[in-house]
Structure formats: C-alpha cells, structure tokens
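During the no-cost extension, the postdoctoral fellow (Dr. R.K.) reprocessed legacy sequence entries with the updated structure-token encoder. One reprocessed record is reproduced below for audit purposes.
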Amino acid sequence: MSDIKKLKLMGANILLSLGGIAFALVIAEIGLRIVGISYPSFYQVDEYRGHTLIPNFSDWWISEGKGYVSINSDGLRDKEHSTTKPENSYRIAVIGDSFSEAIQVNAEETFWSAIAQQLPSCPALQGKKVEVINFGVGDYGTAQELMTLKHHVWKYSPDLVLLEIFTGNDIVNNSQALSPADRFSPFLKKENGKFKMDLSFKETETYRRRDSFVRRFVFSVINHSRLLQVINEAKRVMNLKKEANRNLSTNPANDDIIPALDFDINLYQESQNKDWQEAWEVTEELIKQINTEVKSKNADFLAVTISNPPQVYPDLKIRDAAGTLRDRLSQLGATNLFYPDERIQKLGQKKGFTVFNLAKPMQEYADKNQVFLHGFDNTRMGVGHWNKQGHQLAGKLITQKLCQHLL
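Re-encoded structure tokens follow.
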C-alpha cells in the first residue's frame, strides 16, 4: 500500500473516530437534558459585592431540592419589576442571602411570594397592591446586603426594606478572620475606632481572574452544556470532599450532634473568642448602618432572623434529650439555641427598629406537626435550606408580623 493510501486511510479512521466521539457527546447531552440533570452557575463578579446573579439567565437547580431559576434583566431571582413604583401600591425590598435567593424551590413557593400573595388582605394597606422585590443572593453576608441596598435597591423606591438574617453563617461571613481564606467580598473593618468598608477584594488575583473575558466565556459555554456542567460539578464535589477531610483531621472534636448538622458553639453563647467578639461587633454595626440607610430614605425597616437547622429539628429525642444536642451544648457552656436571635432582638430594641425572630414559632410548628422545615429528599431532611413547607410557614409568619407592624 502506498504512503498516500495509508495517509488517506489514517485520515478516514481519525474522522470516523472523531465523528463517533461527537455523536456520543451529543447523545450524552441530549440524555442529560431529557432526565433533567443540570448544575449551572448563576453567578458573576460584581465590583461592590464580590458576586451577583447573571442577568437574563435561567436553568434548573437540582443539587439541593429542585427549582426553576429565572433571573430577570436586573440580575434578580424574580420577575421583571418597573423601577417606577405603580400607583396605589406598597413595595417591599427583600435583601438577604441564599434563603432569600431560594433556588432550591420554585419562585411561587418562596416566602417572598407568599408575602406578596397574603399581605394585601392586611387592613392597614386599604386595598393597595403589594409588590415584593427579591434582592437575595446566595453566600451573601450583611456587608454585601448593605452594598446591595446602597447601590441597587433605591432605584425601585421601596416603602419597606426587609433584611433577612441567617445566623447560621452571617456572623461568620461578616468576619474576615472567621471566613474562608478564599472568600472575596467586601468586609466592614474597624480602624482607629471608625468603621470603613474594605473593597480590596477587587485587587485580588481571584477577582481579576473571574472577571476576565476568558473566564466569563468558559463559564458561559459551561452554562449552556449539561455535559460540561456534570464534569464541573464532579470536580467541585471532589474538592469539597478534600476540604471536609482536612477539616475533620484538624478539628476532630467538631462531631455532629444531630446527624449532618454542623454548628460552632460560639454562635450559641457569649463567646470569649476574640474573632467571634469582633464578628458580632461588625455584624451589629452593619445592621445598624442598614437601619440608618433605610431611615435616611424615609422607608420602613424590618429585620427578620430566620431559623437555622438545629433550632427547628423536629425530633425532641435528638434535639433536647440528655446526651444529645442540649446536653452537649450545656457541656460546652451554651444553654440557649436562640442566643443569636435574642441578641439581634436586643439590638433592635436599643436602636429603635423592629426585629422579628422566626426560629421559636417555627420550632413550635415543627415539633407539633413533626415536619422538617429544612432539607430535601435529594439531600437530607432537617439540614440545609428551607424546603417548600419552611418557606410557606416563614411567609405566613412574616406576613402576620408585617401586618402588625403596619397597623
């Protein structure tokens, strides 16, 4: 056989192999779409907050729960809203973290949708149309929520700002010392007795890399390919397992009391740890600044501390029985699961703004009805974010509080 014929045969075999691979990839992509498997990234960098949602992007979220996530043209996990407030309407802006973003459920199942549906019946509103605009973004701390308020909320002219506070990680997220080393976000810092917002994350290599054209292009391609999303998710899970193993080896005493419920004992007591003391000081200052900002715009303010999983785990034998969570907390010097909620409540009383603590009434409901308000069948019940029942109960309770507040 001549060299030319050999080259032609080799070329044909290569093309046939490439064609087979391409066909297999197309079939895999179609198969993943048919069965509904997707692991998109909904986030892009933001110069004030570190990250925000990608405008005009929609996809399914199935990693925890299942929700169809549609992001509007202004980067909100919500429907479109006019910046001009409609006549005879009452507008509420919700700022918060992943519990407000709520990608684990469909938009109509969220607590903010429940408020929009139920609050119009409040006599104080006298028939006004209620519009709730959701500014929640996953992994936000209170500093990012303050920056959202300053740079994004006011163009919508809300009548009331609702700050959702998740004590489970907000205090940690507000502290550069307690946060993971690779977290890039604004931090409120105290220098010479004065608080100042530090935006130095914009100078980090991580931020510049994520803001580069190449990175944005690569993730845009990934977001449009289910196969690439699966590969990217597998890589992420492997990294998480490595990190978990490292944490377990360095902190062997941090055993779970309730299965899969992680908590830091410092959250539930007057901590003697310097980093935690500073984290609380910063957190309280951020909440005060949000209150001041809202009042300066002649709007109303409501802070809502939501439940964290240990507080509402609906099994008294596990949560409260001797030898389990209550006993373990007592041994470590903490006796009150509601310490962070009550601390923020006292701050509101001192500074003259309303704080609504959700954890206690949600615990009562969970115990009475023996239902999990956190967790999903595809992850683990009792942990993680609110499920549909959690959102519906929270929406009902917040609506009642809002109506009382307005009256």
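The chain is about 45% helix and 15% strand. Residues 247-260 have pLDDT under 50 and may be disordered. The remaining legacy entries will be reprocessed before the final report is submitted.
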